[in-house]
Specification:
Length: 212
């Protein structure tokens, strides 16, 4: 099991080195091991530089001729795609740009966080039905992966809702949506902090603290 974990970790590091060009100072020793592995499997030359011919064979749908090397390249593609999509997503949320966020979604359509972000942006624009559709789409993506995934989705949705700018942030409708989300989350987590938030929102609704 330990050997398997080392191989998997090394594989991911090699993939990241090949396709993202990134190296963490804290992983220097592992990166050296990864480079040696890459050289022995034909992905790096003697100078430690990527062999783009072999890598290109795999990224274009072919094979390097080495099953383990193919797996490394595939892992690198996943790492690179994720990093690129995250950069687009961050820029889109910061700029409140729905079209740019759609580009991130196109890169990773099954990333429920992006759909939650889009829901928040649409809600802020007054497109309430469209926002709800995005939040439901995110929930549908998370559901098949079990309770832990559903909890992460609810955390993502709630965080996105809190990013909605005033005046809609202060609306009773959004408060009710937050309340519903916290209640869903509490059913799964039984977290006292979620319960306290539920009580706080309910009190605010009763006392009329939110705009109609």
């Amino acid at each position: 099991m330990k050997t398997t974990k080392i191989i998997l970790l090394t594989t991911m590091v090699v993939g990241a080195l090949l396709l993202s060009g990134c190296s963490d100072q804290d992983l220097r020793d592992l990166a050296d091991i990864a480079r040696m592995w890459g050289q022995s499997h034909g992905l790096l030359d003697d100078g430690g530089n990527p062999d783009y011919w072999n890598i290109g064979q795999r990224t274009l749908g072919g094979s390097t001729g080495d099953e383990q090397a193919d797996a490394v390249v595939d892992a690198g593609v996943v790492v690179d795609n994720f990093a690129s999509a995250e950069a687009v997503r961050d820029a889109a949320v910061k700029a409140k740009d729905v079209k740019k966020l759609d580009s991130a979604i196109a890169m990773r359509p099954k990333e429920f966080r992006y759909h939650n972000d889009k829901g928040a942006l649409l809600y802020e624009q007054g497109k309430l039905d469209a926002a709800q559709d995005e939040w439901e789409r995110a929930a549908a993506i998370a559901k098949p992966y079990g309770t832990a995934s559903q909890i992460r989705n609810l955390q993502s949705r709630i965080a996105a809702m809190w990013q909605v700018a005033p005046p809609r942030q202060n609306s009773r409708h959004l408060a009710e949506l937050k309340l519903s989300s916290y209640e869903e989350k509490y059913k799964l987590t039984k977290d006292p902090k979620d319960w306290d938030t539920i009580m706080t929102i309910q009190e605010g609704l009763i006392k009329g603290y939110f705009d109609e």
